[in-house]
Amino acid sequence: MLDSRRKAYLEALGIVAYVRRSQATPAAPEPDAVVEALDKAVPAEPALGALEVHSARRAGPPAAERVPLVPSEARPEAALDWEPLRALVSTCTRCVLHETRTQTVFGVGDVRARWMFIGEAPGADEDRQGEPFVGRAGQLLNSMIKALGYARDEVYIANVLKCRPPGNRDPRPEEARECRGYLERQIELVSPTLIVAVGRIAAQSLLATDTSLARLRGRVHALGEQRRPLVVMYHPAYLLRTPSDKRKAWQDLLYAQAVFRRLEAGEAVLE
Ligand code: URA
Questions:
Q1: CA pair distance 114, 126, nearest whole angstrom
Q2: C-alpha 255 to ligand 1 mean position (Å)
Q3: What's the 73 CA to ligand 1 centre distance in angstroms?
Q4: Does residue 192's CB lie within 6 angstroms of at least one atom of ligand 1?
Q5: Tens digit of pLDDT for each residue in 139-194?
Q6: Does ligand 1 come within 6 angstroms of the Cβ of 132?
Q7: Ligand 1 mean position to 158 CA, how many Å?
Q8: Is the CB of 159 under 6 A from ligand 1?
Q9: What phi and psi, each to the nearest 5 degrees, are found at residue 232?
């Protein structure tokens, strides 16, 4: 029988486990050939079905109290707590994107989460609703998070850019640069165990590289001076366009979960 989280994820990817027709009432779904192929394609350990459901919240004081504040003369956000940070972002005019946005899209989730997912930039739905990953790609991201054992509100989700680029064009380097301080402060405040860069653009922007996603996957990267562990995964919007890469996305999730577990166990994951 399929683990319910895995089943939800597979269904979100359009991989449907069949139910025997001979049975009058729907029986528990059984793995079909695709699921078996997926199982073969991913490392045996850890199997997702065997993954423990971790609490995404940490015990102890809020991260903001544990993280030393580093005041920056150039960037006032470097010393701000959540509400002043959110207020500062909401009135930002540092780049041209403020001229076309409906509203800023700050971030959402548990401010003490151990997982932080960072995407590229708001799209039309996010610009309208003021929350990251609420469109079709967001639904798939939610399923992927669920497959890891968490609800959306147990992790923290943000974007490299807080404003929508018109026509969903790629973020420009100067826009990412102007927005960077906000994201850095969010990362400091959440202080997650593991950061997941969602998609090529986010990964390349965060890591300041033009290396392909194919080469960035399956490795632990060190983000910034604090060398925070970061892994990358395929963007759900890309997966909706390119279903043939769904298997690789599944591998990314398993890899992220394995890295997370090692980090939580106090093991070194960075080279
Ligand atoms: N894609 C992203 O990268 N971020 C969003 O918030 C929505 C879609």
A1: 23
A2: 22
A3: 30
A4: no
A5: 999 999 999 999 999 999 999 999 999 998 999 999 999 999 999 999 999 999 99
A6: yes
A7: 8
A8: yes
A9: -115, 155
Mapped onto helix, strand or coil, the DSSP state of residue 214 is: helix
What domains can you pick out in the chain, each with its CATH number? Answer: 56-264 (3.40.470.10)
Cβ 102 vs Cβ 126: under 8 Å? no
CA-to-CA separations, 29 to 1, 12, 38, 112, 150, in angstroms, rounded: 6, 15, 16, 36, 22
Mean pLDDT across 227-240: 97
- Whether 251 is in the pocket of ligand 1, judged by its Cβ within 6 Å, is no
Residue 30 above 80 pLDDT? no
Angle CA 229–185–70, to nearest 5 = 100
pTM of the model: 0.79
Q: What angle do CA 228, 203, 63 make, to 5 degrees?
A: 30
Residue with tokens 């590289």: 209
**pLDDT, position 27:** 34
